[in-house]
Amino acid sequence: MCIQIGSHSLSAPVLVAPMSGVTDRPFRRLARRLGAPLVVTEMIASHAVLRDVREETRKAEIDAEDTPAVVQIAGWDPSVMAEAARMMADRGADAIDINMGCPAKKVVNKYAGSALMRDEVLAGQIMDAVVGAVGLPVTLKMRLGWDADSRNAPELARIAEQSGIRLITVHGRTRCQMYTGSADWTAIRAVVETVSLPVVANGDVVSIETARACLEQSGAHGVMIGRGCYGRPWLPAQIAAALAGAVPPADPDIEERRAILAEHLDAMLVHYGTHAGIRNARKHIGWYTEGLTGSAEFRQRVNNTMDPTVVFAEIDRFFADLGSDNSSGRIAA
Ligand SMILES: Cc1cc2nc3c(=O)[nH]c(=O)nc-3n(C[C@H](O)[C@H](O)[C@H](O)COP(=O)(O)O)c2cc1C
Q1: Ligand 1 atom showing the smallest separation from residue 72 Cα
Q2: Residue 293's domain spans which residues?
Q3: Is 176 noted as a catalytic residue in this protein?
Q4: Residue 17 CA to ligand 1 centre (angstroms)
Q5: CATH number at residue 159
Q6: Cα 166 to Cα 162: distance, rounded to the nearest angstrom
Q7: Can you tell me the distance from the alpha carbon of 100 to that of 117, in angstroms, rounded to the nearest whole number?
Q8: Most buried of 63, 277, 297, 307, CB within 10 angstroms?
Q9: Residues 219 and 306 in one domain
């Protein structure tokens, strides 16, 4: 089944997961440019959107070429969620995703995110309200359930289908597992068998091989990749090509990696301004260089400066040194 978001057909059934602090506008633009079929925005707190909190609304700034743009909203009040969805539609979203998977204490304590899986009535009211508020496709992201004794994803999927939800993503862990253990891809099959909607399987997909295994075990129509994209914004395009039966693009060589990292940093500086841009970019710089020769010392130097010129120069020097150590220009995985 080809995954369809409204009038947009994805080139391959590969989505990049919403990740707070990661899938911001610069990251989405970069991953899309490198060939990711779709990147979901960071979760946007519905109450904060209605209060017009700048930090929150800027998460929904969408580039014209970022289509289909799927904006994820979180919250617990159906009318607030509906209003936030309407605002996101006005700002150019092509689809709205409802967060019922976030396990973070500050989210579930307010009865949002994965806490909604414990209250199927409220979850249904939220989905009804959001679907009724916008003329856009509405999707749902959830986990297997709250804990091992309440794996109610199939039941919630049934409610979602009745509400008019158009696609469901399931992270193959319970809320209480947080990010521990491994994602249970086979458990996602129960959702696939309950609804006739497209189901996307999520959790621990980090390569072409794991993407294929996840699809086989879950029977899902597509995969969603989260942490596997850390420092590898080209990975979704590689998986997308492989699943579409094409030859996946090779890993970027050293010079290409340097250029991608520089492009990412530059976009973050433009988006956040120098101070926040440098601070927010540090984790990405760490991920791009993790495990490479001299990366610990490099990161220490980068983390000790707030001067973008120094950071760019350090990046150039780091990759130039790597290149002279490795004449092929390829980095061993
Ligand atoms: C740093 C971080 C931020 C996340 N933020 C969100 C979020 O905003 N909304 C959401 O639904 N899930 C969020 N998640 C969960 C991911 O979307 C995904 O379900 C989870 O990481 C499992 O997929 P993975 O094993 O491919 O990383 C986040 C995960 C991480 C690691």
Answers
A1: 9
A2: 254-325
A3: no
A4: 6
A5: 3.20.20.70
A6: 10
A7: 7
A8: 277
A9: no
Residue 72, classed as helix, strand or coil, is strand
DSSP 8-state code for residue 39: B
Pocket test for ligand 1, best of 20, 139, 210, 229 (most atoms within 8 A of CB): 20
Q: Do 54 and 80 reside in the same domain of the chain?
A: yes
Q: How many domains does the chain have?
A: 2
Domain boundary among 208, 223, 243: 243
For the chain, which ranges sit under pLDDT 50?
A: none
| pLDDT score, position 328 | 62
Which atom belonging to ligand 1 lies closest to the Cα atom of 97? 11
Ligand 1 site residues, Cβ closer than 6 angstroms:
17-22, 42-43, 72, 99, 101-102, 141, 171, 202-205, 225-228
- Pairing verdict, β 8-9 and 4-5: antiparallel
The region that residue 111 occupies, defined by phi over 0 for left and psi between -120 and 50 for alpha, beta otherwise, is: left
Tokens of 33: 């440019």
Q: Same domain, yes or no, for 309 and 162?
A: no
pLDDT value, residue 106: 86
What φ, ψ does residue 319 adopt, rounded to 5°? -75, -30
Residues 102 and 173 in one domain: yes
Q: How remote is the CA of residue 226 from the centroid of ligand 1, in Å?
A: 6
**Which atom from ligand 1 is nearest to the alpha carbon of 141?**
11
Q: What is the pLDDT of residue 109?
A: 79
Q: Is residue 1 part of a domain?
A: no
Give the atom of ligand 1 at the shortest distance from the alpha carbon of 99: 11
Task: Indicate which residue of 102, 176, 214, 229 is catalytic.
Answer: 102
Ligand 1 centre to CA of 227 (Å) is 7
Residues in the chain: 333
Say yes or no: 217 and 259 in one domain. Answer: no
Tokens 């930090």, residue located = 55
